[in-house]
């Protein structure tokens, strides 16, 4: 989601203000403070050198250097770079085809109704592809790279782009009316996830509508709470006296696919769905404050009491979890695995460690929040799928502490250890996981600049952490030469776990890349000097590592006047002389951010999710005014007058076949 809670139709800058200082009032140091201490001089030098070299790219010396690097095969990527910019359509590198696979409203079942944006119903939406596709995963069937289950999260809804007749323009700004119960029901059905069988036929991917696996999961699908918080008093409600059954999942951002082939949906900005006030003196007040609950961005509480804190004070403790879905059984109850903690989970990418434990990397996407990992107690059994199905109920949740000397400690969040005791208000592991953020605060975790996707790389053994930005960093980190008041373009950290063991409790870290325009010296961006003017980016958000171990970074937030470029997918070298060289492979239409991305196991398809296209356009000369259902900045991807803009998943393939980017 772009700066989150974009359910509200305010421009990004206002949303950032709405996000305020984040919700972490602990005194732990920020990652930015540590980096500025550790790298201030080196970064300054790198930034200055980068600028000098870019100015000199016309010089024969620089050209020779670039050619020599390429002749040495320094870059792992080869494709003609896309030109950065903003317009109504998507663009992919020449020689590649980006085909629409699934659009909001597309039928997922043989008997599903055709999409009619003027006659939307919850019943129809439950049989169709949902809104705002985010995470994309692929679970091969019989080991195939051309036949499998695509799993896609539907993070949130944009009513002003979805529904006709709900927007007025007042003083040049969008004013959105209250949604009807029918519209709220459509929104609830448009959230969640999709599981759909797909097959590549003659080089093109197709949906299999008659598949027995196809399924929609929504904000009304019944789920089970498992792990330490299951059945606890703090998760009981009037509708669920057992504290074990939850209705639905919310704001599923990124996610993961486990080594045993289940689908992980991470619940991110759950606070936005809750309204109302807790009863006076309620014991959850401090807990909810730490998570920013309630935010009140949605109209759901008008029709459903469980989203009203005054009526159902514990309901918000039942969201913010990692959800696991067994895709092989379409009737399986999705499980909220509370052992992995309760945060604004961006995603949950996993890898099997040397000794068979399964390690999940977890970012809590808010300014000044933390990086986590979870290590299962049990080990992965490759020959017995069923033996793995409850691995996520037992294990150790850790939070990261980044030290100034480039080392890293993973601090365990275990009830009874260190400060996680009754004295500090933790009576059991249930309290630790329900208040994961507070537990991390008091063990001394490092405050980060919006940790988003975190991906382990099985080929080089490293872990990549996307840190989107943090406009609320201290004034001495903001430079007047930067045109944006929220002058942080984010950065990428590379972690090397000790002993090359993903389950290690310590490691080393360094900054792979400080993002932003390297031609503006004060930004201090550290792209290699071979990165072209199209190759730099800001706001790294989601990422993928392909089978060759190459890093691809998708961005969230470049779509504005200041950068003159939309979000997109960049190929980023991590090895050798080419390290920190970046190239633009794909870019999205106006208003969108790029989610996914995901490579099929044979690296011959890149799936990308274009989220919230057309959400904005005021600052693009091609539109120049607010974008809403009746006056959209783009009608991507159909470009038909009677069809609104539609978030969609695309399949990118090389024309004539072959691996992507080689
Ligand atoms: Fe949904 Fe953290 O982006
Ligand atoms: Ca984001
Ligand atoms: Ca995201
Ligand atoms: Ca990812």
Give an overview of the whole structure:
With about 650 residues, the protein is an alpha+beta fold. The protein is globular and about 60 Å long. The model is unreliable at about 5-20, about 30-65 and about 475-485 (pLDDT under 50). The strands form 7 sheets. Strands 16-17-19-20-21-26-25-24-23 form a 9-stranded antiparallel sheet. Strands 11-10-15-14-13-12 form a 6-stranded mixed sheet, with no helix packed on it. Strands 1-30-29-28-27 form a 5-stranded antiparallel sheet, with no helix packed on it. It contains 9 helices and 33 strands. About 55% of the residues are buried. It has a single domain (about 5-270, about 320-655), classed as 6 Propeller (Neuraminidase), CATH 2.120.10.30. A hairpin with a 5-residue loop joins β23 (about 450-455) and β24. The chain binds MU-OXO-diiron and calcium ion (3 copies). The site of MU-OXO-diiron has 7 residues, from loops. The site of one calcium ion (CA) has 7 residues, from β12 and β27. InterPro entries: PhoX (IPR008557), TAT_signal (IPR006311). Pfam families: PhoX. This is dTDP-glucose 4,6-dehydratase.
């Amino acid at each position: 989601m772009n700066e989150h809670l974009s359910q509200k139709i305010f421009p990004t800058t206002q949303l950032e203000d709405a996000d305020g200082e984040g919700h972490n009032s602990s005194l732990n140091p920020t990652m930015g403070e540590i980096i500025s201490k550790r790298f201030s001089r080196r970064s300054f030098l790198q930034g200055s050198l980068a600028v000098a070299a870019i100015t000199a790219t016309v010089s024969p010396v620089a050209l020779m250097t670039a050619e020599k690097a390429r002749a040495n095969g320094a870059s792992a990527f080869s494709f003609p770079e896309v030109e950065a910019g903003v317009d109504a359509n998507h663009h992919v590198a020449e020689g590649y085809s980006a085909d629409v696979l699934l659009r909001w409203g597309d039928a997922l079942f043989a008997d599903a109704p055709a999409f009619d944006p003027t006659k939307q119903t919850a019943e129809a939406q439950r049989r169709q592809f949902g809104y705002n596709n985010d995470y994309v995963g692929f679970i091969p069937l019989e080991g195939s790279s051309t036949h499998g289950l695509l799993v896609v999260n539907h993070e949130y809804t944009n009513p002003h782009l979805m529904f006709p007749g709900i927007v007025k323009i007042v003083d040049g700004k969008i004013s959105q009316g209250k949604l009807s119960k029918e519209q709220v029901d459509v929104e609830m059905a448009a959230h969640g996830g999709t599981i759909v069988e797909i097959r590549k036929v003659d080089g093109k991917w197709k949906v299999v509508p008659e598949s027995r696996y196809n399924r929609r999961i929504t904000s009304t699908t019944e789920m089970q709470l498992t792990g330490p918080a299951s059945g606890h008093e703090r998760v009981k409600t009037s509708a669920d006296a057992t504290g074990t059954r939850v209705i639905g999942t919310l704001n599923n951002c990124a996610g993961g696919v486990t080594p045993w082939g289940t689908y992980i949906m991470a619940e991110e900005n759950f606070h936005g769905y809750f309204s109302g006030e807790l009863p006076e003196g309620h014991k959850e007040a401090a807990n909810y404050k730490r998570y920013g609950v309630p935010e009140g961005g949605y109209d759901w509480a008008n029709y459903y009491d469980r989203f009203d804190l005054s009526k159902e004070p514990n309901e918000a403790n039942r969201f913010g979890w990692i959800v696991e879905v067994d895709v092989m059984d379409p009737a399986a109850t999705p499980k909220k695995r509370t052992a992995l903690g309760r945060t604004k989970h961006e995603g949950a990418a996993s890898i099997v460690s040397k000794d068979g434990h399964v390690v999940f990397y977890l970012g809590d996407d808010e300014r000044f929040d933390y990086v986590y990992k979870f290590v299962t107690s049990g080990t992965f059994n490759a020959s017995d799928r069923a033996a793995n199905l409850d691995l996520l109920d037992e294990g150790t949740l850790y939070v990261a502490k980044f030290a100034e000397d480039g080392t890293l400690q993973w601090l365990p969040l275990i009830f009874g250890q260190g400060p996680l005791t009754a004295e500090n208000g933790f009576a059991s592991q249930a309290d630790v996981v329900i208040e994961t953020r507070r537990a991390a605060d008091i063990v001394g975790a490092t405050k980060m600049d919006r940790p988003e996707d975190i991906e382990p790389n099985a080929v080089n053994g490293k872990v990549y952490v996307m840190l989107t930005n943090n406009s609320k960093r201290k004034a001495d980190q903001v430079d007047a030469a930067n045109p944006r008041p929220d002058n942080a373009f984010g950065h990428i950290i590379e972690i090397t776990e000790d002993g090359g063991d993903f389950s290690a409790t310590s490691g080393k870290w360094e900054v792979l890349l400080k993002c932003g325009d390297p031609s503006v010296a004060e930004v201090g961006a550290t792209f290699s000097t071979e990165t072209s003017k199209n190759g730099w980016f800001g706001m790294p958000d989601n990422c993928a590592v392909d089978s060759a171990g190459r890093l691809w970074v998708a961005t969230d937030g470049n779509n504005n006047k200041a950068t003159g470029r939309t979000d997109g997918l960049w190929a980023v070298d991590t090895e050798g002389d080419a390290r920190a060289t970046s190239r633009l492979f794909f870019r999205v239409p106006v208003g969108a951010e790029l989610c996914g991305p995901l490579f099929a196991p044979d690296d011959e398809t890149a799936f990308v999710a274009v989220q919230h296209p057309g959400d904005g356009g005021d600052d693009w000369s091609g539109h120049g005014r607010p974008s809403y259902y009746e006056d959209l900045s783009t009608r991507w991807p159909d470009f038909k007058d009677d069809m609104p803009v539609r978030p969609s998943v695309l399949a990118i393939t090389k024309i004539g076949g072959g691996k992507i980017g080689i």
